[in-house]
Amino acid sequence: MGRERLGFDMSVRVELGERTYEVHVGAGLVARLGEVARAAIGEVGRRAFIVADSGVTATFVESAAGSLAGAGFNVTRVTIEGGERCKTLGHAERLLQELAATRHERSDLIVAIGGGAVCDLAGFVAAIYRRGVPVVHCPTTLLSMVDATVGGKTGVNLIVNGHLKKNMVGAFWQPAAVVADADTLRSLPIREFRAGLGECLKHGLIGAHAGDALLFDDTLVALKNLYNRPPDLLTDLIQRNVRVKAAIVARDEREEASDDGGGRALLNLGHTFGHVIESNSPLLHGECVALGLVAAAAVSGHLNLAPAEFLHNIRSSVKAAFVAPQPGKQARKGIETVPNAADPTIIAPLSLPPIAALIDQMHEDKKSRGGEPRIVVPLRDRRARVIRNPDPAALAAGWRAIGAE
Ligand SMILES: NC(=O)c1ccc[n+]([C@@H]2O[C@H](COP(=O)([O-])OP(=O)(O)OC[C@H]3O[C@@H](n4cnc5c(N)ncnc54)[C@H](O)[C@@H]3O)[C@@H](O)[C@H]2O)c1
Question: In the chain, how many H helices and how many E strands?
Fold first, then answer.
């Protein structure tokens, strides 16, 4: 991605005092999982309990288990169907029972191998089993590499009065280490890959808060190759995104900073709109965040915080990011392609409820305070700002920008 090309094992430190850890990013890193885990937790832990996502290839999980065994761990493995449905208290209880049955001790290790859902679940179990045991995350989706496994948020969902309440039960529990092996992304379905790109664009738009004002533009330049998933390019992309998230988390580990303190609230860019889109459409979270970025850019325009061409630029960037190579053109063998390059869910308007109803739903967002929504809006210099209780006309401008009426 132009600015930096440092090789294949790049680590980023998440600086959190005694909870500091390394996020290793590279290709073929799963072979070093045992070594990394051993270095992170020391010699005391004897057992490694793997929680594996069923979507990850068996060979990848085998390599992980082999590497842990090679580092002296006695390995137990449980496979869980990945995706949002695994984030329940029921699954957490099952894992807790199995841990207890294997006599897992306080110094023993949990290893999560999977997407953000499996890592959130396994991280939560690690936080509460015997009041906390070490966890190493081995994220296998782009989104979980750049976002979910950095920062220590873990948790499961609740169903309340028939409605899904995401991440209602959880804990902050920082991992001992993270190993993000870009090779595993080869088997990731294309829409999941694209959803991860949505979060990457978000990081790019706040990159200047973490010393990387070029990330957004470099990502756009790299797009034509990214869908082929070359490990070196992915390593660069993931590492730079992890750096942005790590820098923000290091300033505000528990999301307690004031709105203008450059803290974790910035990571909600695109999310207030995104969550509402998510509950009204079949789109994936990262896809909704990307549309949320367009809406948030329209709010910036409406509030005169950015010029009109800014919205145009963000909209065309999201479109560019969401168009994958056509079959037979750039796609490398073994990598899935979207049959119609112009994805209808992004190019055509979504079928959303009326704007007034959408704005009502924004007031219910869990990040709103006292029913007062807070919107993070992007500025032109790759920074963002939190707006409290924005004018409904500004919110309506946001919704109109993505086709709501
Ligand atoms: N803790 C945090 O800070 C944080 C941040 C962002 C998102 N999240 C959470 O992350 C979750 C979303 O994570 P996600 O986008 O990774 O999706 P996901 O975990 O739901 O996984 C998506 C699908 O990809 C499959 N999969 C995983 N790795 C694969 C691979 N290498 N090859 C093929 N298939 C694979 C899974 O089985 C699943 O079917 C949500 O629950 C969200 O709340 C947490």
Answer: 14, 11
